[in-house]
């Protein structure tokens, strides 16, 4: 009997059935997440309540860059390159050029980073533009990128005007960019950087023409895939939000618990805010929440100063259970629907305009991860090691391309990881929940074992870059 195979869960009552993903998301949000958010003033701390439009709107691309990185020409190029039907189904949002130098903050009448954070929660892609010819990352740009934390999966980086420098210098600039991003973003290596010259001028130095063309095609393909992936994006964002709302509820209710009922409230409040880190630590341990799920400590402390703690609510298990239930069951159900909707929306082919016919296959240069297979394979980080796992897979007596739970277990326990961990890995890996593993799921399971053995935390939900390509749509 495999206690970690999730059999127990199947016996619970079935989750609700929805006709469309956006209908499902709206209903789940309203009935399960929103009550928790309202109860603990989530909207005053993190993000306003979601509205129906947030679930219905078409995919959005947010463009962010410093002055003179070529944003405007970039937009024109996209509009010239992407087929009309794609543009009809995507909105491109331009942002004011980011300032460099000292006077930046005082010269705006609003908190630019906060505004971008609001957008980041709602868009499908965030394109960060850099100027290869003049690479510098101002404080404001750095703040902006930090504000995009938790949305790394949406970020694509464009190193523009790369035709203005020689190849050797370009390599150095690329290295410098990755190094700078590494200081701002936790995992810069997962960020996809497109090198190119995204404007219609002739190339100043044409040495890297082929590379630029391939990179442009890759990027256009990525954008073209957005309408197809929009439902999954919205689902992922709801999951992120639910996790934050859960942690937030724990924080607020912990603070409530610590408050005296009559005297010394002001002093106690100051003390609690000052020692918020300790409270974070306790919640982390008590509820096994990963540190990455907590809101920024300093920002939270600032926000708490303005709050009346006596208005805070104590813990209400029923509200938390509803969210837990949504994360554990309803989301999985919606995932099936997501794949179905995706498969109903075929990927449009690239119509290259000026580039038509000049490329021997846009991915022919082997540049970047996952090149060669089209959008569905881009960034599946497991792909690299899959051949190794495949060899093991075929020794485990697959039937119709799948191995049984028992055979998978035999192999996975060799890692010596405890059953609780393997159970979690199983849950993440058996994506279609059929109690068996196909080769991709098996590779994923091994990848997660590797991550864990290397000392990293397992994700509680599978991030998009770990979902096998074939599972991103309904099996063909
Ligand atoms: Ca499976």
Walk me through the topology.
Layout: H1 7-10, H2 21-39, H3 42-45, H4 52-56, E1 60-65, H5 71-81, H6 84-88, E2 91-94, H7 104-107, H8 112-122, E3 125-131, H9 139-147, E4 155-160, H10 167-184, E5 192-195, H11 209-224, H12 226-258, H13 265-274, H14 276-287, H15 297-305, H16 317-344, H17 386-393, E6 402-404, H18 405-412, H19 419-429, E7 436-438, H20 439-453
Parallel strand pairs: 1-2, 1-3, 3-4, 4-5
Antiparallel strand pairs: 6-7
Helix pairs in contact: 2-12, 2-16, 8-9, 12-16, 17-20, 19-20
Bound molecules: calcium ion (CA).
Shape label: globular
Helix content: 40-55%
**Ligands:** calcium ion
Major sheet size, sense and barrel closure: 5 strands, parallel
Strand order of the largest sheet: 2-1-3-4-5
Secondary structure tally, helices:
20
Beta-strand share of residues:
5-15%
Order of helices and strands: HHHHEHHEHHEHEHEHHHHHHHEHHEH
Terminal CA distance reads 32 Å
How many DSSP E strands?
7
What radius of gyration results from the CA coordinates? 24 Å
Instruction: Enumerate the spans where pLDDT stays under 50 for 5 or more consecutive residues.
Output: 5-12, 348-377
Mean pLDDT across residues: 82
**What structural class results from the helix and strand content?**
alpha/beta
């Amino acid at each position: 009997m495999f206690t970690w195979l999730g059999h127990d869960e199947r016996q619970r009552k079935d989750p609700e059935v929805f006709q469309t993903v956006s209908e499902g998301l709206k209903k789940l949000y309203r009935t399960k997440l929103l009550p928790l958010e309202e109860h603990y003033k989530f909207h005053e701390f993190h993000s306003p309540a979601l509205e129906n439009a947030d679930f219905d709107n078409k995919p959005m691309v947010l463009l962010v860059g410093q002055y003179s990185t070529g944003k405007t020409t970039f937009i024109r190029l996209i509009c010239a390159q992407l087929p009309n039907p794609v543009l009809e189904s995507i909105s491109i949002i331009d942002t004011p050029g980011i300032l460099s130098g000292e006077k930046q903050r005082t010269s705006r009448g609003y908190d630019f980073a906060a505004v971008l954070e609001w957008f980041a929660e709602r868009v499908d892609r965030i394109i960060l533009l850099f100027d290869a010819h003049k690479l510098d990352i101002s404080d404001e740009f750095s703040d902006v990128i930090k504000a995009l934390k938790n949305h790394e999966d949406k970020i694509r980086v464009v190193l523009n005007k790369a035709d203005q420098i020689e190849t050797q210098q370009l390599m150095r600039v690329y290295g410098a960019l990755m190094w700078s991003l590494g200081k701002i973003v936790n995992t810069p290596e997962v960020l996809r950087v497109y090198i190119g010259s995204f404007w219609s001028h002739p190339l100043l130095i044409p040495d890297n023409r082929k590379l630029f063309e391939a990179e442009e095609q890759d990027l256009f393909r990525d954008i073209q895939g957005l309408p197809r992936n929009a439902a999954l994006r919205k689902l992922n964002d709801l999951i992120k939000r639910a996790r934050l709302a859960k942690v937030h509820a724990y924080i607020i209710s912990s603070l409530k618990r610590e408050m005296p009922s009559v005297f010394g409230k002001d002093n106690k409040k100051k003390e609690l805010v000052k020692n918020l880190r300790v409270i974070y630590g306790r919640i982390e341990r008590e509820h096994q929440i990963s540190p990455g799920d907590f809101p920024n400590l300093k920002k939270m402390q600032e926000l708490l100063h303005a709050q009346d703690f006596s208005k805070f609510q104590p813990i209400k298990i029923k509200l938390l259970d509803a969210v837990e239930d949504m994360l554990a069951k309803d989301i999985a159900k919606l995932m099936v629907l997501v794949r179905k909707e995706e498969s109903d929306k075929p990927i449009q082919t690239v119509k290259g305009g000026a580039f038509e016919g000049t490329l021997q296959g846009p991915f022919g240069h082997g540049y970047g991860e996952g090149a060669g297979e089209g959008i569905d394979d881009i960034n599946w980080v497991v792909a690299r090691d899959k051949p190794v796992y495949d060899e093991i897979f075929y020794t485990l007596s697959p039937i119709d391309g799948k191995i049984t739970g028992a055979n998978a277990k035999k192999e996975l326990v060799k890692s010596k990881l405890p059953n609780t961990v393997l159970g979690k890995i199983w849950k993440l890996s058996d994506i279609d929940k059929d109690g068996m593993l196909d080769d991709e799921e098996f590779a994923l399971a091994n990848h997660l074992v590797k991550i864990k053995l290397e000392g990293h935390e397992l994700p509680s939900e599978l991030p998009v870059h770990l979902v096998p390509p074939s599972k991103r749509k309904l099996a063909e």
